[in-house]
Amino acid sequence: MVKYFCSKTEIKSTWDHVVSAFWQRYPNPFSTHVLTEDVVYRELTANHRLLTRRLLMKTNRLPRWAERFFPSGMSRSVYIVEDSIVDPVNRSLTTYTWNLNHTKVMSVEERCVFHDSAEQPAATQLKREAWISSSIFGFSKPIQEFGLARFKSNQMKAMKGLEFALSNLQGETPQRLLRDTMKDASEKAKEAAKTLASAAASAPQKPRQYV
Questions:
Q1: pLDDT band, very low/low/confident/very high, at 56 (cuts 50, 70, 90)
Q2: What is the pLDDT of residues 89-101, one digit of tens each?
Q3: Cα–Cα distances in angstroms (integers) from residue 46 to residues 36, 54, 81, 89, 94, in the given order
Q4: CATH code (residue 59)
Q5: What is each CA distance from 124 to 8, 14, 101, 171, in whole angstroms?
Q6: Which residues, including other chains, have CB under 8 Å from residue 89's CB and lie 6 or more apart?
Q7: What is the SS3 assignment for 41?
Q8: Which of 11, 31, 48, 114 has the greatest number of C-beta atoms within 10 Å?
Q9: Entry pTM
Q10: CA angle 119, 121, 124 (to 5 degrees)
Q11: What is the domain count for the chain?
Q12: pLDDT tens, 129-140?
């Protein structure tokens, strides 16, 4: 089983501004968990599409129950591949991201599509999809629930970071950026963590090698 997430957001900035901000969104005060970003490949195709592959290193503080799934000494950092396609003819930006390590514990794949809003000429429509899975026997469902809650919280931070970059481009000071939604997502992540911690505490302690 895989947990699926889909959301649509209207960004009150033109597509050109959003694409410019996309490349300048790190560092920002809302994404301090993003440690590094490196461009490993870039190509301008004959039909004027810009193809880019980036490698990002991120870290997320692990809840106490998650420590049992990581062998001693294993890095807690997560390496993320981000492929993107900028199509100026059709005015779309499509991104694909997935984690390279810790995939047995949790695998997260995400696709985002930014394009001109059909209803608002000075706005951009964002469709975000995610697929979350886990291969930990006996714990896959609660881990996926936790992963979904954390993904929702992190995508709110990502939106805040993008709006921060847009504000910098436009010479504005960021005001309230999705504050209420961030609070709701954070609370859901905490609830999912409590559920998974309870399941882990009641499970048999037979040692296993998961990774």
A1: very high
A2: 999 999 999 999 9
A3: 31, 21, 24, 12, 18
A4: 3.30.530.20
A5: 11, 6, 33, 19
A6: 47, 48
A7: strand
A8: 114
A9: 0.77
A10: 80
A11: 1
A12: 999 999 988 889
Helix (H) or strand (E) holding 35: strand 34-44
Q: Is the pLDDT of residue 2 over 70?
A: yes
Q: How many CB atoms lie within 10 A of CB 76?
A: 12
Closest CA to 66 of 105, 107, 33, 32: 105
| pLDDT above 70 as % of the chain | 76
Are 91 and 115 contacting, i.e. CB atoms less than 8 angstroms apart? yes
Quickly list DSSP for 167-179.
Answer: HHHTT------SH
Tokens of 193: 């963590």
Q: In this structure, what DSSP letter does residue 117 have?
A: -
Give the residue numbers spanning the domain of 66.
Answer: 2-170
Cβ(27)–Cβ(162) under 8 Å? no
Complete edge-to-edge strand list for the sheet that includes strand 78-87: 3-11, 124-133, 107-116, 92-99, 78-87, 50-58, 34-44
Name the token pair of 68. 């049992």
Amino acid at 67: E
**187 within a domain of the structure (yes/no):** no
In a domain, 186, yes or no: no
* The two three-digit tokens of residue 143, written as one number: 């881990």
Q: Which residue has the tokens 């990502």?
A: 158
The stretches of 1-132 forming alpha helices (DSSP H) are 15-22
